[in-house]
Amino acid sequence: MKILYLPLIPGQVLQSEAVGDYQADTLFHGLRSVLGADVIDAVHLWHMYNTADQERLKKTWGKGFTVYSTLPEIEIDRDDIDNKVKNQYYDFIVIPIHHTLNGRWYEIASVVNGMLNVYPQEKIVLIDGWDRPQISKPIARKVQYFKRELSDEFSDVAYPLSFSLPKEKIRNPLEREHDFSPMIPSSLPEHQATYIYTEEDPYYTQYQKSYFAFTSKKGREDVISESWDTMRHYEILANGCVPFFTNIERCPVNTLFKFPKDLCVRAKKLKGVYPGTKQAYNPEVDTYIGTCKEILEPENRGHINFGEFDIDEYNELNQEFIEYTKNNLTTESMAQYFLDKIQENAKNR
Predict the structure, then answer these.
(1) Which residues are paired to 295 by β-bridges?
(2) 331-348 vs 22-35: helix axis angle to the nearest 10?
(3) Interior angle at CA 262, CA 258 and CA 267, nearest 5
(4) Nearest to residue 31, comparing CAs of 131, 103, 100, 125?
(5) N or C terminus of the chain with fewer C-beta within 10 Å?
(6) Averaged over 309-323, what is the pLDDT?
(7) CA neighbours within 13 Å on the CB side: how many for 53?
(8) Is 231 within 8 Å of 163 (Cβ atoms)?
(9) Helix pair 311-328, 231-238: axis angle to 10 deg
(10) Cα separation of 235 and 231, whole Å?
(11) Residue 114: CB partners within 8 Å, gap ≥ 6?
(12) At what angle do helices 231-238 and 200-208 cross, to 10 degrees?
C-alpha cells in the first residue's frame, strides 16, 4: 500500500520551530514504522528524522521530546508527485490539518475540493487534530475524516483518532523516590515552576521514579468537551508511572478513545493514596477532582500512607498499564487501527 502524506501546512511554518503537530506527527511516525518507504511525506518533515538539528528541536513544542528526531532517514520517492496524483498512483492521500490552520474551513475546503477533482473521495483522508470538537460537516461528508477530539455530535461524520508514542520510548520504572511526580501540569505559577526539564532523559527519569503523576485535560477548565489529549498522558505511562488523571471521568467516549480510562479510575481508588487537593477528596464517594489547578502547591501535592497502601495491588495495576500501553498506545498500534479503518471505509463508501 502506498500512502501520500500531504500535510496542510504553510510553507513558512514547515521551516520554522512551529512545525510540530502531535496528531499529524504521531500518525506519520506510526505509518512510516508500519509501511516504511511506501509512506511518502510529500514535503520532508525535517523534525521527524534523526538528522534533525537537536538545538533547533529544543525550540519546538514540547522541546522536541518523545516524538521528534525518531525516524531514520531513508530514501523516499518524492519525484513527480503532481503527476502521480493525477494518475491516482497512491492508494490513499492522507491530509493532516496543521494546528495553524485549525478552524479555517474555507482554506481546508479549497484543498479538499481541489483534490476531489483528481482523486476518488474514498481515497482521500483528512486528519483533524484540533483540540476543540468543532467540525465542518460539509467537508467531513466529502472524504474520510478522522478527529482527535471527537464529540457525540459529530460521530456520524468522523472517526476517532488520538495521540500515541514511539514504542522505543517505553521504559521500565526505577526505584521509587516520589509518591507523586514533582511536575504538576497546570497554568498556576506555583505549578509552572515545576517545569524545569530541558532534556528528555531527566524528564522521563522523574516519572520512572514516581509512583503516581498528575495529569488532566489542558486548556479551558470551564469547557469539559475539549483539550483532552496531550502527550504528557503517554509519557507518564511510557515510564512505568501510574497516571493520577484528575478529571478522566468526564472525558467524552470518542475522545482519548483508546486510553485506559477504566484503569485510571481504579488507580484513584487505591487505598492509602492521598492527593493534595483544595477540596476534601473522598474516592469512595467521587473520584472526580477537576483539572490539576485543584492540586495544592508542589510541596503539598499529595502522599502515600504506606501503612494502608497495598504495594502488590499497585504493582499489578501498574503492570496492566504497561501492557496496555505496549499493545494499544504505540504509534504502530494507532497506525494499524487507522490503516484497517480507511481500507474498510473505502470498500463500504
Answers:
(1) 277
(2) 80
(3) 125
(4) 125
(5) C
(6) 98
(7) 7
(8) yes
(9) 120
(10) 6
(11) none
(12) 60
Using CA atoms, how far apart are residues 328 and 346, in angstroms rounded to an integer? 24
Pick from 120, 121, 119: nearest CA to 139: 121
Closest of 79, 60, 78 to residue 68, by C-alpha: 60
Residue 168 in 3-state DSSP? helix
pLDDT digits (tens, 9 = 90+) for 49-100: 999 999 999 999 899 999 999 999 999 999 999 999 999 999 999 999 999 9
CB 218 within 8 A of CB 230: yes
Strands 273-275 and 302-304: antiparallel
* Span 188-229, pLDDT tens digits: 999 999 999 999 999 999 999 999 999 999 877 778 889 999
Contact present, 126 and 95 (Cβ < 8 Å): yes
Say how far apart CA 260 and CA 267 lie, in whole Å: 11
Q: Report residue 244's pLDDT band, with 50, 70 and 90 as the boundaries.
A: very high
Q: What single DSSP character describes residue 238?
A: H
**Cβ–Cβ contacts within 10 Å for residue 234, how many?**
28
pLDDT value of position 220 = 73
Average pLDDT over residues 151-179: 97
Residue type, 238: A
Nearest to 183 by CA among 202, 161, 156, 158: 202
CA distances from 27 to 10, 117, 147 (A): 19, 26, 12
- In angstroms, rounded to a whole number, what is the distance separating the alpha carbons of residues 270 and 347? 46
Letter string b/e over residues 174-201, b meaning 16 or more CB atoms within 10 A of that residue's CB: bebebbbbbbbbbeeeebeebeebeebe
The pLDDT assigned to 349 comes to: 76
Residue 45 grid coordinates: 518533515
Q: Does residue 292 surpass a pLDDT of 90?
A: yes
